[in-house]
Amino acid sequence: MSGNSIPNLLSLRGARGGRGGRGRGRGRGPGGPSSGPTHDQTIQGTDDDAAGSRLSAVNVGYLADPYAQFFVENLAGPSPRRLPIINRGTYTRTVALDNLIDSFLDDPYGMQSDSKQRQIISLGAGTDTRPFRLFPRANRPKLVYHEIDFAVTVRKKARIVQSVPPLRQILGVPSVEEDGSWNSQPSPADKYYCHSRDLRELVRDDAPPLAGLRTDIPTLLISECCLCYLETSTTKDVVAWFEQKIPNLAIIIYEPIRPDDPFGKMMTSNLAARRIRMPTLESYKLPQDQTQRLRDAGFEHANALTVERIWESWVSTEEKERVDRLEGLDEVEEWKLLADHYVVAWGWRGAGFAMDANGA
């Protein structure tokens, strides 16, 4: 496989039996090629492709997610199957986030049961299935879960939940607001909010408050290919907006890196061809830049690992063997190159966290 034909974990090109997919980023970055409704609509559309990639990894056996099927719509035939290196990339990034989120939900401090509460805020969440996987879980803290995205995506998710009994059974009947925002109560102890908000407007002084936001409990902020589409100054403003309100705060960021080597240049060129620009890719080029980014933002602890490092160090030998048996991976060097261009960074400050450098 030549360098120019290697797919990437952001555009997720190279589908088998269907169109190529894209990552889960939802763009909110004004300026240059990424300005205006065309860019916003392009990034909004990536959620459909992300859902297809997630379902591909599930159908092949990489991931166990019974809810992925409900968010791939209008299929004329079998769902698209991605290339093996894309399925492995989807698997590895999911493992990374799941490990870190599980660490956040752990209770290492022996808090009393009535004070076990956690809050998760997912930026640009799209049709992510994580809430449906977390709420039914036993032995977890009481959970307040927020998802923030554009109105069209938020309304779509509400429509799917309302029409699919297994989803509605988990979240409960949605209460929908005029702007498309909605909320539900999965259990008497839990709360779910899906906000129709543009992150560029969230940080404005005259912006309305974020409904249901708790500032008194440990909170995890997730950006899975979302903040990367904002101008760097705006990404700082978004993180600062939450930091100023929540003293005990953690963050997980998944983004591409290394734009200056041949593969990185190809990656940015492919994005530019679709009029998509990623300002943070130029601002935080290496894993250590992402670590410093979090420290500069005020997080007392910060770490960053490439997807390739996560595959090598976080996935057990037995699990690697299981994944290898699912479908052959002939392009091992291409996988390493691809996975080395994506990073998971995480950091935290305050009390209530157990997120060490091993993601456990």
From TrEMBL:
<comment type="function">
    <text>Methylates the carboxyl group of the C-terminal leucine residue of protein phosphatase 2A catalytic subunits to form alpha-leucine ester residues.</text>
</comment>
<dbReference type="InterPro" id="IPR029063">
    <property type="entry name" value="SAM-dependent_MTases_sf"/>
</dbReference>
<dbReference type="InterPro" id="IPR016651">
    <property type="entry name" value="LCMT1"/>
</dbReference>
<protein>
    <recommendedName>
        <fullName>Leucine carboxyl methyltransferase 1</fullName>
        <ecNumber>2.1.1.233</ecNumber>
    </recommendedName>
</protein>
<feature type="binding site">
    <location>
        <position position="124"/>
    </location>
    <ligand>
        <name>S-adenosyl-L-methionine</name>
    </ligand>
</feature>
<comment type="similarity">
    <text>Belongs to the methyltransferase superfamily. LCMT family.</text>
</comment>
<dbReference type="InterPro" id="IPR007213">
    <property type="entry name" value="Ppm1/Ppm2/Tcmp"/>
</dbReference>
<feature type="binding site">
    <location>
        <begin position="198"/>
        <end position="199"/>
    </location>
    <ligand>
        <name>S-adenosyl-L-methionine</name>
    </ligand>
</feature>
<dbReference type="GO" id="GO:0032259">
    <property type="term" value="P:methylation"/>
</dbReference>
<keyword id="KW-0808">Transferase</keyword>
<feature type="binding site">
    <location>
        <position position="224"/>
    </location>
    <ligand>
        <name>S-adenosyl-L-methionine</name>
    </ligand>
</feature>
<feature type="region of interest" description="Disordered">
    <location>
        <begin position="1"/>
        <end position="49"/>
    </location>
</feature>
<keyword id="KW-0489">Methyltransferase</keyword>
<dbReference type="GO" id="GO:0018423">
    <property type="term" value="F:protein C-terminal leucine carboxyl O-methyltransferase activity"/>
</dbReference>
<keyword id="KW-0949">S-adenosyl-L-methionine</keyword>
<feature type="binding site">
    <location>
        <position position="93"/>
    </location>
    <ligand>
        <name>S-adenosyl-L-methionine</name>
    </ligand>
</feature>
<dbReference type="Pfam" id="PF04072">
    <property type="entry name" value="LCM"/>
</dbReference>
